[in-house]
Amino acid sequence: MPLVRISLKQQDDPTYAKRIGQLVYAAMHSAINVPENDNFQILTEHDEQHFIYDPQYLGIQRTDSLVIIQITLSEGRTVDQKKLLYTTIAENLNTQLGLRLEDVFINLVEVKKENWSFGNGIAQYAL
């Protein structure tokens, strides 16, 4: 059960953030086997004063088109699965939306399965 947060600068196209979310979900589904319909996302657009980033950290040249994607998910994926996820997301955003690879920032936050409640006050994944 990933929870995805996508942050970017305010866009003229009101569908842009949602299209990013759709591509991120498709990448999670194919790269790390996220189940069908397991799609929970928070899409946030920010003005210039509320979207801060370093344009050159680690020698990567970022622009104002930067998209920050944070995915909280249950622990257990291999390093290779994570690398495939990063690549798939970046390539999908590049080919489908023209987003530069340098402008795709991804952070995974892994948590234990008992740290989820999908509703009803129950820890559905707790063993």
From TrEMBL:
It comes from Pseudomonas fluorescens. InterPro entries: Tauto_MSAD, Tautomerase/MIF_sf. SUPFAM superfamilies: Tautomerase/MIF (SSF55331). This is Tautomerase family protein. It comes from the Bacteria.
